[in-house]
Write a structure and sequence with these properties.
There is one protein chain. The protein has 1018 residues and is mostly helical. The chain has 41 helices and eight strands.
């Protein structure tokens, strides 16, 4: 194969340079021409897709040619052959139509073949050889290879769907050399003897299958003459490797009743000679557990109680106390919020204004009450369709939780009128189901079958139907039943629908009145500039007056440069007034004029500038101008709306009544449908409801119906979507995920790999989807359990058992300890999906209680600590740092989040836009500089801490040191630290020449607060 590759490379290089020596060997139609055409031309020119009537897969169809240019080749005359002419651009259309032009060497190859007579040297295979292919090769290619190496965009540019695609090969060169299996890359890949191992992820072919491929290549790759290509599309297959993947297996049923986490860990660490670290000291262990379970440091009273408790089970009592703390729910609820895009909503670029604070409170309550995790997962899909946890018919909080998948980073504006926006928002719901709940990347199948996991593109769109059939609506917070919630959502929709209908009526009639009056709107607008010019001129005279006052103030203060700039501005404005230039008026011009007078965002308006100068006379006149121009803006809008008439004109009385009704509806609507990112009225929440949006392309029939009823809308008017029933149905499969190429409807259902659903969705079908998600003993429920357990381990050890917490599928990393993860997940399910029991089991284990110190000999065997023979040193996350700073200051543990923008900026607060797999933990100089230099950081905190601890003004550092260390490090000082404190005092007194106990304690406390130990766990 090496010789063949070398010859081929030099052949192409020689052709590109026009080296005559390359022509020594005749060009082969079978070996050279057909593979090139298959790779570059046959996407459009094949039997089933003959663009221009041309098929380039057989020599007889090339000679027959297409509909326009006749025969594609003229034997012996390459320059007269249309194939060469379109490839070189000599005639139109230049080919290929899509993709890069053929290289000069490739065109020269075709030119030489035609010049040599365009001969067909395709081999003829015996019937028994073709039968061998059909029996031993074709089924394996279809089942094991076409998933990645077929279709128009095969991986690594290698198509195994045709004989000539195999001979042409891909980015790594030819896949096979006819007659030479030992030189063929395909054989090396399926034998898995080198770096390239196919099929991927260890899903090996049997020895008999490999031997069959070797025999097939040795025979010259026999192929049926009547079937040039086996499949143009990739085949979705579910392999044994998919079924055997550690995360896609059911949880173990035969787990012993006394299964032990530490014993399971030892079975992996002992054989490799890993000696586990000794148990942490009591101070470090208490500090670690307290931070991990409630996000705060232990108090001095809690430290004393634990350290002095010599009874067996002392640590168990600590853990039970922490799990029972109300702070536990806030701490562990915050971990979950990382997988909901942090619960942050209410921005035009995000989603509807969900009540993030109420949701976070509900999540904390769920953790504190230890509500089962399988129930918790289901609620996030169908909480609005489920009974309340305590038995009530409807829970508004559950309905709010079910709306959380709507909260994504992509734009939410124009979701009603732009299909690509709607599709992106629906895609975020699929991502939430996959990444947040199942721990796999379902969203990867939007454009094509998942390249790693057994999720097809059809599976993706089957799931998408559940989300497209759902939406959101404002519902009263006091709603008690599902029927009441449905009625509230329907009432809202009907009010919005009426408002939309009235808008359509006014627009249609206004257009008719305008056209009927010969352009009455424009006629009215043309009368305004003459009336507005004096006011416009006076406004700019007032601006000049303000500028003169500002120049005078600058001169008075000695700001010569500013005064000079203002003088130039005054001259410029005066010149414009002399020319009497007036703007072109329209509604947007009046809006900008309002900003100019009154200010907007960072723009400082003339009124505020005048007031800052003490010129109330100017400010008063400018306020009158602001009112005038705003009234003019209203007049222009009114005339445009009513076809050139004023609203009070009798000719538009009916339209005026419709306008008043719109205002009346808007005043009572519980939310603004045009700005769903704005919080609903008090007493209402945006929650999940059944009924979603249609594709914009599907609105055409409704638009026609509206026109027939005398209504009219712009194509991008969101109001029109409310003139038809909510969408509940199946989603369209999009070719390559592109909204411009919708294909067939795909029945709502669950991925085939997990067991097909019956396809009878009730309503949106989300309730059935939720029930499917955690069906007992199912593979998907096992995934949900493994995902929850893996993330719990991550929070307690700083690293997960599977180190890709959002991706347990074949795209992610494989854990070294799958049996530990499986055991914990099985126990988790067996104990009722109790998160508190799971955490208690882990925190009480020897593995969790171990110290972080490690001997060199042990470290050399497992430096990354993948077998968890020791604990990991961890920096506190943002919330724990914020909690600690607040606690240092006040001595109180706050129920709920501490929001501190400075700490968030320096200590890696999570992004509010992403599903956060793991927290970023940075170590930067700005963190230390913030702690040392910020007025509210080290020294400010030190003063507040000393005050809170009751340190007397004349207390020495030696007398205060233990209280400081207990508050900051949650342990007493070491002898070395006591000596360092004494030395510090001596240096301070030597420098100042006198003792100052208060200053010494304050400064040393500031140093302790800046120490690494204050924000790290060991």
């Amino acid at each position: 194969m090496t010789e063949m590759r070398t010859r081929s490379r030099w052949l192409v290089f020689g052709l590109a340079l026009g080296v005559p020596a390359a022509a020594a060997e005749p060009v082969s139609f079978d070996r050279d021409v057909l593979p090139l055409l298959e790779k570059r031309c046959n996407q459009c020119h094949r039997p089933e897709k003959q663009r221009g009537g041309l098929d380039l897969t057989r020599i007889e169809t090339m000679r027959r040619g297409g509909d326009e240019l006749g025969a594609a080749i003229v034997a012996g005359k390459p320059d007269e052959s249309p194939l060469i002419q379109v490839l070189t651009g000599a005639i139109e259309p230049k080919m290929p139509d899509k993709g890069d032009p053929l290289a000069a060497g490739e065109i020269d190859l075709l030119r030489r073949w035609i010049a040599e007579g365009a001969k067909d040297d395709s081999p003829l295979f015996a019937a028994e050889e073709v039968a061998f292919f059909e029996k031993a090769i074709r089924p394996v290619l279809a089942a094991r290879c076409f998933k990645c190496h077929a279709g128009e965009e095969p991986e690594h540019d290698l198509s195994l769907a045709s004989r000539h695609g195999i001979l042409a090969g891909g980015s790594r060169g030819p896949a096979a050399v006819a007659g030479h299996p030992e030189q063929s890359l395909l054989v090396k890949a399926i034998r898995q003897t080198g770096e390239l191992r196919m099929p991927r992820n260890g899903d090996r072919l049997s020895e008999a299958e490999v031997t069959a491929f070797e025999r097939w290549i040795e025979l010259g790759l026999p192929w049926p003459a009547n079937e040039k290509v086996l499949a143009r599309e990739r085949r979705f297959t579910i392999s044994d490797a998919d079924r055997d993947h550690w995360a896609f297996r059911p949880l173990p049923k035969d787990l012993p009743a006394d299964w032990n986490l530490d014993a399971a860990l030892r079975t992996r660490s002992e054989p490799v000679g890993l000696s586990p670290s000794s148990e942490s000291g009591r101070y470090a262990l208490l500090r670690r557990a307290t931070y991990d379970l409630i996000g705060y440091p232990p108090t001095s009273e809690e430290i004393e109680a634990f350290v002095n408790d010599g009874a067996e089970g002392a640590f168990e009592k600590v853990v039970d106390r922490l799990l029972a703390s109300p702070h536990f729910g806030w701490r562990w609820g915050r971990h979950w919020l990382d997988y909901t895009r942090n619960g942050s909503t209410g921005q035009p670029t995000r989603g509807p204004a969900l009540d993030a604070d109420r949701y976070a409170l509900w999540v904390a309550r769920c953790f504190n009450e230890d509500r089962p995790w399988d129930w918790f997962a289901r609620v996030h899909l169908a909480g609005d369709l489920m009974p309340g946890f305590t038995g009530e018919d409807y829970s508004i909080d559950q309905a709010l939780a079910a709306a959380v998948p709507l909260n994504g980073p992509r734009t939410f504006e124009k979701a009603e009128t732009e299909t690509f926006v709607l599709m992106d928002k629906l895609d975020e719901g699929i991502e939430f189901l996959g990444r947040s709940l199942l721990g796999i990347s379902l969203e990867c199948a939007r454009c094509h079958d998942h390249k790693f996991d057994p999720i097809s593109q059809r599976d993706y769109y089957a799931l998408l139907g559940y989300f497209q059939s759902s939406g959101y609506a404002p519902v009263p917070t006091e709603t008690a039943t599902r029927s009441e919630a449905a009625a509230a959502a329907e009432a809202y929709r009907m009010e919005v629908s009426e408002k939309a209908r009235l808008h359509g009526f006014i627009r249609r009639q206004g257009l008719l009145l305008n056209v009927g009056g010969g352009g009455r709107v424009k006629q009215w607008q043309e009368t305004r500039p003459a009336l507005l010019a004096p006011m416009w001129r006076r406004l700019h005279e007032l601006e000049i007056e303000v500028l003169r006052a500002e120049r005078h103030a600058a001169e008075t203060s000695g700001s010569a440069g500013l005064a000079k700039d203002l003088a130039l501005a005054i001259t410029d404005r005066e010149e414009k007034l002399k020319r009497s230039d007036t703007p072109d008026y329209d509604v947007s011009a009046f809006k900008e004029m309002g900003y100019f007078i009154s200010g907007h965002k960072s723009q400082l308006g003339l009124i505020k500038r005048a007031e800052a100068l003490g010129r109330q006379d100017l400010a008063g006149e400018l306020k009158r101008h602001a009112d005038y121009w705003e009234a003019e803006r209203q007049r222009w809008g009114e005339r445009s709306t009513f076809g050139g008439y004023a609203k009070t004109d009798p000719e538009v009385a009916e339209l005026a009544r419709a306008s008043d009704r719109i205002a009346e509806i808007a005043s009572v609507l519980p939310a603004n449908p045009d700005q769903p990112w704005v919080t609903p009225r008090p007493g209402y929440l945006y929650v999940r409801v059944d009924g979603g949006l249609r594709r914009a392309e599907d609105l055409a029939p409704f638009d026609e119906k509206a026109k027939a009823e005398g209504l009219q809308f712009n194509s991008d008017n969101a109001n029109r979507v409310f003139l038809h029933p909510w969408f509940i149905g199946d989603s369209r499969l999009l070719d390559r995920g592109d909204v411009l190429y919708p294909d067939e409807l795909v029945t709502r259902g669950t991925p085939v790999f997990f067991g097909e659903s019956d396809g009878t969705a009730k309503g949106s079908g989300r309730l059935q989807l939720a029930e499917w998600l955690t069906a007992p003993e199912s593979v998907q429920a096992a995934l949900v359990a493994r995902t929850a357990v893996n993330r719990a381990w991550l929070q307690l050890f700083g690293e997960a058992l599977c180190r890709s917490p959002k991706e347990l599928g074949r795209l992610g990393e494989s854990p070294e300890l799958p049996e530990v993860l499986d055991g914990l997940a099985a126990e988790f399910v067996r104990e009722g999906w109790s998160m508190k029991r799971l955490l208690r089991r882990i925190v009480l284990s020897e593995a969790y209680r171990r110290g972080t110190a490690v001997e060199d000999s042990v470290f050399s065997k497992d430096g990354p600590n993948r077998l968890f023979a020791r604990q990991n040193v961890r920096r506190l996350d943002y919330e724990a740092v914020a909690n600690t700073v607040s606690w240092w200051r006040t001595g109180k543990r706050v129920e709920g989040p501490i929001r501190d923008a400075e700490i968030a900026r320096h200590f890696d607060a999570p992004s509010p836009y992403d599903l956060t797999e793991r927290r970023v933990v940075s170590i930067t100089a700005t963190q230390a500089l913030f702690m040392m230099n910020h007025p509210e950081a080290a020294m400010g905190l030190a003063g507040e801490l000393i005050e809170r601890l009751g340190v007397k003004a004349d207390a020495s550092l030696a007398d205060s040191l233990e209280a400081l260390c207990l508050a900051i490090f949650q342990r007493p000082p070491t002898p070395a630290e006591s000596e360092q404190a004494l030395a510090f005092v001596e240096r301070c007194r030597a420098a100042s020449g006198k003792p100052d106990p208060r200053s010494e304690v304050l400064e040393f406390a500031g140093l302790l607060l800046c120490a690494n130990e204050a924000i790290y766990l060991e």
